[in-house]
């Protein structure tokens, strides 16, 4: 039976735009109370205003997930207001494009500080409350290329592979506490994500599928209602992972830089 999301307390990182914003809208329509986190507070305030007629008691909390103090404030304010967290959606991330040979290490570190360590910080800070309440669901938005490295995306892939490994380990530790851990892997999605990319090399990276962010947001809601270990999204992307699983050497040849 599907879980009723009414009155659930949901924390979403990266809620100021794209997939996170759409997921916040859907959770609010389902009757959940949503905590929006991202760096651009003005966009979170607009979202809060847009949701004023929905039943939940929402809250915005401007947060840079790479900063420990911000994360502590996010979790502290959430627990002060609601006393619990039922669902955490780890969605915030930045992209990174460039050849390894051209890599700007500072930029690479900054992407890892957000995508990998930032997500770890938020999860680690919320976990004790889920353990105490003996329930919870952690949903992480990874990527199809969190399972297969591709040219020019080394640091982004490293961050997504890293967070997938972290979440798999976490799952094995939290089952006994009744905490579910899920991973969603979208292919390319029509958001501002790739427009914000600062390129370290003049390269073109190709989109696989091109989903509407609402499709991914709906998949997040569905995952919250019916928790599963993982979901690969998009037909082409599923084919991509399938092919890679059976013929990895052929796949290396297809995607290599020419
Ligand atoms: N778009 C795609 O093609 C695609 C494909 C596969 C997977 N994904 C994954 O989907 C998720 C959402 O991406 P999207 O496409 O919706 O991109 P987006 O529109 O660029 O949204 C990214 C969100 O992350 C937030 N964010 C970035 N850095 C942050 C930080 N340091 N602290 C807190 N929030 C931060 C941004 O808000 P602020 O700038 O306000 O902080 C924004 O709300 C990401 O995990 C991404 O890796 C995207």
Mean model confidence by pLDDT: 95
The name of the CATH topology is: Rossmann fold
Bound molecules: NADP nicotinamide-adenine-dinucleotide phosphate
Oligomer: single chain
- Low-confidence residue ranges: none
Q: Indicate the proportion of strand residues.
A: 5-15%
CATH-defined architecture = 3-Layer(aba) Sandwich
Gist?
The protein is an alpha/beta fold. The protein has eight helices and seven strands.
Can you characterise this structure?
This protein is of the alpha/beta class and 258 residues long. It has a single domain (9-255), classed as 3-Layer(aba) Sandwich (Rossmann fold), CATH 3.40.50. Helices cover 47% and strands 14% of the residues. It contains 8 helices and 7 strands, in the order E-H-E-H-E-H-E-H-E-H-E-H-E-H-H. The protein has helices at residues 18-29, 41-50, 68-82, 105-133, 154-174, 213-225, 235-246, 248-255; strands spanning 9-13, 33-38, 59-62, 87-90, 136-141, 179-185, 230-232. The site of NADP nicotinamide-adenine-dinucleotide phosphate (NAP) has 31 residues, from helix 1 and helix 4.
What does the secondary structure layout of this molecule look like, with pairings?
Blueprint: E1 9-13, H1 18-29, E2 33-38, H2 41-50, E3 59-62, H3 68-82, E4 87-90, H4 105-133, E5 136-141, H5 154-174, E6 179-185, H6 213-225, E7 230-232, H7 235-246, H8 248-255
Parallel strand pairs: 1-2, 1-4, 2-3, 4-5, 5-6, 6-7
The protein binds NADP nicotinamide-adenine-dinucleotide phosphate (NAP).
Give the key terms.
258 residues, alpha/beta, 14% strand
């Amino acid at each position: 039976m599907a879980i009723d999301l009414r009155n659930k307390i949901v924390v979403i990182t990266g809620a100021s735009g794209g997939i996170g914003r759409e997921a916040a809208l859907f959770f609010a329509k389902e009757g959940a109370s949503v905590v929006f986190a991202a760096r651009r507070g003005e966009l979170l305030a607009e979202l809060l205003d847009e949701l004023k007629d929905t039943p939940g008691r929402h809250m915005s909390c401007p947060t840079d997930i790479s900063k420990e103090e911000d994360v502590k404030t996010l979790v502290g304010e959430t627990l002060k207001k609601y006393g619990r967290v039922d669902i955490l959606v780890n969605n915030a991330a930045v992209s990174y494009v460039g050849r390894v040979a051209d890599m700007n290490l500072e930029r690479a570190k900054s992407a890892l500080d957000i995508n990998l360590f930032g997500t770890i910080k938020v999860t680690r800070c919320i976990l004790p409350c889920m353990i105490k309440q003996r329930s919870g669901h952690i949903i992480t938005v990874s990527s199809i290329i969190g399972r297969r490295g591709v040219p020019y995306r080394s640091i982004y892939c490293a961050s997504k592979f890293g967070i997938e490994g972290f979440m798999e380990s976490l799952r094995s530790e939290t089952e006994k506490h009744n905490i579910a851990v899920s991973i969603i892997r979208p292919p390319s999605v029509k958001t501002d994500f790739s427009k914000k990319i600062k390129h370290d090399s003049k390269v073109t990276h190709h989109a696989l599928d091109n989903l509407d962010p609402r499709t991914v947001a709906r998949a997040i809601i569905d995952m919250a209602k019916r928790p599963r270990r993982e979901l690969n999204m998009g037909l082409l992307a599923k084919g991509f992972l399938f092919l890679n699983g059976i013929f990895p050497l052929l796949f290396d040849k297809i995607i290599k830089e020419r």
